[in-house]
Please model this.
Amino acid sequence: MTAIEVDGVGKSYTGRKKRTDALSGVRLSVPSGGFVSLLGPSGCGKTTLLKCMDGLIPVTEGEIRVGGAPITGPGRDRAFVFQDFRLLPWRTVLGNVTFPLEGTVSSRAEREEIARRHIEMVGLAGFERHHPHELSGGMQQRVGIARALAVDPDILLMDEPFGALDAQTRELMQIELLRIWELTGKTVVFVTHSVDEAIFLSQRIAVFSARPGTVAAEFEVPFAYP
Ligand code: ADP
Ligand code: ADP
Model:
C-alpha cells in the first residue's frame, strides 16, 4: 500500500521581484507504515516538499496523492511536526495537546482523555499542567509529537524535528521516535540534513539535489530498524 505519491511535483515561489524554483519534477512514493527520510543540504527544497505534502502550500506543477486521492489542502490524515515546536506558550502541556482536537471532539473530558494518553506515550506523564517554558527543548518536542499524534493521523510529516536539540537529547529522541513509530504504525516522512540521522531512523532515503530541488537518488537502508 502506498501512503503518499508525489507525481512530477514542481514548486516555484513568486515574489514581487524574484522567482525561486524550489522543486522540479519530484517523484516519490512513500509506503504505508514506512519511515522515509528526505535528505539533502539546506535550501534544496525538503521543507517545501513536506509543506506541499501537508497541503500547507500548493504545488505549481504535478500532483500529490494521499491514499490515492489528490490532496487539496491540509487534512486530518496528516499531522506536521515543526523544528521550532510551535507550542502555544500560554497553554499547558495538556492544553497544547487538546488544542487540535477542539474542532472535532466536542466533549472536553474526552479531549483530555485522548491528550493524556498521548502525553503518556511520549513519556511526559506528570507534566500535564506545566507550561512550555518550564520544559527542556526535548520535552517541548515531545509535546509537539503528542499534539501531532492526538488527532490520530495516518501520516506524520516531521521537519527536522530534532534539529534544535543538543546531540545527546537528539539521540534519545531518535530512539523514542522509533519506539513510537513501531507502537503506532504511522507512516513517517522525516526531513533532515544529517546522513547519520537518516540512516539511523529510516527504511528508505530520498536524497535531494538542489536548484531546483529534485530527488537525485533513492535507496533502501539495508539494516533498518526494527
Ligand atoms: P530545505 O528545507 O531543503 O532547507 P526549503 O524548502 O526551505 O529547503 O527551501 C528551498 C528553496 O526555496 C530555498 O532557495 C529557499 O530560500 C526557497 N524558499 C523557501 N520558502 C520560501 C518562501 N516562502 N518564499 C520564497 N522562497 C522560499
Ligand atoms: P528550515 O530550517 O526548515 O529549512 P528555513 O529556516 O529555511 O527552514 O525557513 C524558515 C521559514 O522561512 C520557512 O517557513 C520557509 O518557507 C521560509 N523561507 C525560507 N526561505 C525563504 C525565502 N527566501 N523567502 C521567504 N521565506 C523563506
About this structure: The longest strand covers residues 2-14. The chain has a mean pLDDT of 95. Residues 177 and 201 are 9 Å apart (CA to CA). The longest helix spans residues 167-184.
